[in-house]
Amino acid sequence: MKLISERSHPAEIKDVIEELTRQNKRLTIINHIAQSINVEMSYDEIIHQVAVPLKKVLPYDLLSFCLIENNQLIIKSGIPKEQKILGEGWVLHAENSAPWKAIHDKHCFLRQDIPNDPHQYQEDEDLLSLPIRCAIMAPLLVNNEVIGALNFGSKNTYAYREHDFLFVQQLADQLAVCLKNTQLFNQISRIKADWEQTFQAVPDQLFLMDQNYTVLRHNQLPEISTSPERPKCYQICNRCHGHLQLCPGGEAFIQGESATKELISADQQKIYLISAYPVRTSQEKVSNVVLYIQDITEKRLLEYKLFGSAKMASIGEMAAGVAHELNSTLTAIIGNSDLLLRNPLSEYKSTKLLTDIRNCGQRSKKIIQNLLTFSRQDNVALETVLINDVVKNSLSLISYQIEKNNITIQENYLRNIPPLLGNKLQLEQVVINFLLNARDALQKNENGTITISTTLTDDIKTRTTWAVVTVEDNGEGISKKNLNKIFQPFFTLRAKTGGTGLGLPLSLGIAQTHGGRIEVWSELGKGSKFSLMLPL
Questions:
Q1: Could you tell me which residues come within 8 angstroms of residue 329 by beta carbon, excluding any fewer than 6 positions away?
Q2: What is residue 379's predicted lDDT score, i.e. its pLDDT?
Q3: Strands 91-92 and 72-79: what pairing?
Q4: Nearest to 247 by CA among 276, 220, 272, 219
Q5: Do 534 and 420 contact (CB within 8 A), yes or no?
Q6: Would you say residue 69 has pLDDT above 80?
């Protein structure tokens, strides 16, 4: 731009004033465009905000902007709106393209006479069909990163001059910032929408609460997030019956770790698994907790049915042993009774035979009672249990099945183990499963031995004392590959002998229901050791 001096000609002064006026007008338009565009606008709304005031300072018959997406340059919006050729959605390939040249050079690219340009670009044929004969393209730059190009076209040759570069680039720079912000806003909006859809799609109850048990978000009650008075979690999800100490959410806040609890509904008809997951701030403090509530009633009913199936399978295996035991005692009863009826005996001999008959009868009665008790499927109540009695009762039902295979049973009981709260029948099922598995592992062992023992162990970290029942055998052992699968339902290593693959999974479920666990050690050729650990 020329400078005004004392010797300047009036015509020169007039040209300078007109140029300054034009530049001021252009700056005003750029500021107006920057203020009028917001991140929530669509691309069409943005181009409209640019198009109307721009006509006053820069002539054009074609206006568009294109953005780089997945290494493609795509026209996002343009004027005229109804235009199809080089319109919205049109893809400009990187090879031999004028807008791509502006992008690569990071500089405005002016084409004053397209029909007579010695270098023809891929879009020239389309431009001339409109007909556009002059064009200027400016890169859209944000922090020296090119996101696309701003394109002007005129039906007149030499419609633009090099002195238009500064304005077009200033306009492109301002528009680039607006478009980048819009892109980021749209990206965040899409992520938020995807998250909201995922959040709402979860069929179980899922919600976010603070340390005062106030619900901040709820997947089944989306209006809570905008409500001025948000409810407490126990007001909309009364799973703990108002007893907040039962809620794992409080534990998650205190411990800073996830917590899980099972709760039964007030009408005893539903069982819920409630999991709490702490949400941390950047300072690693727990700010909120996510609660995930699952209705596991059907799952538990299925487990009970599977437990009953496994129990029936165990009873089938015990049938031969029970028959043998009853046959032995009944033989003694019948034989002694025949002796008493056949010949008169002395009082001493008669008393001895009668005592033997009574003992055999009581033994038969106990065997039948144990079998009937074990076969019941409706008794799941907790009671005070002596772990040694659990083991002995289990052995009374299964020992014959083991010993008839020439397997030696060794028993080691720790005396005076305190009673624990549990379900006697379920715990017996676990011990019987351990014993049957040990028996099967010794099928090919001529000197098979099963050692069953009870003991106590302390966990210093959790300050918990555990009652431990261990069944150990010197059988064939389990490979490392299969050791990771033994607790999977229906996985069995004795399918040929009628294994169901339910014994160990159900045993693990019973242990966990009692707050305990099962520990396993096994090595091929050396045997296996299964330990049921129950907290006192």
A1: 360, 361, 363, 364, 367
A2: 47
A3: antiparallel
A4: 276
A5: yes
A6: yes
Length of the chain: 536
Closest CA to 396 of 377, 375, 374, 370: 370
- How far does the chain reach from its first CA to its final CA, in angstroms? 93
What secondary structure, in 3-state letters, does 437-452 show?
HHHHHCCCCCCCEEEE
Alpha carbon distance 505, 511 (integer Å): 10
Helix (H, G, I), strand (E, B) or coil at 149: strand
What CA–CA distances, in Å, run from 305 to 213, 310, 375, 414, 511? Answer: 37, 9, 13, 34, 17
Q: Supply the mean pLDDT for the chain.
A: 78
Question: Amino acid letter at 121?
Answer: Y
Question: Which position has the token pair 């400078």?
Answer: 3
Does position 523 have pLDDT exceeding 50, yes or no?
yes
Average pLDDT of 514-532?
87
Contact between 221 and 236 under an 8 Å Cβ cutoff? The reply is yes
Beta strands in 386-526 (DSSP E): 408-412, 420-422, 449-459, 464-473, 517-523
Query: Which amino acid, one-letter code, is at 5?
Result: S
Other CB atoms within 10 A of residue 421 CB: 13
H-helix or E-strand containing 205? strand 205-209
Given a cut of 80, whether residue 468 has pLDDT beyond it is yes
Cis peptide before 228 (omega within 30 of 0): no
With 0-12 / 13-18 / 19 or more C-beta atoms within 10 angstroms meaning exposed / middle / buried, residue 356 is: middle
Tell me the backbone φ, ψ of residue 409, rounded to 5 degrees: -105, 125
Element (H, E) at 275: strand 271-280
Give Cβ neighbours of residue 250 (< 8 Å, ≥ 6 apart). 244
Question: Helix, strand or coil for residue 268?
Answer: coil
| Cβ–Cβ < 8 Å for 279, 292 | no
Handedness of CA 16, 18, 21, 23 (dihedral sign): negative
Dihedral sign of CA atoms 420, 422, 424, 426 in order: negative
357, containing H or E segment: helix 347-375
Residue with token string 């079998």: 371
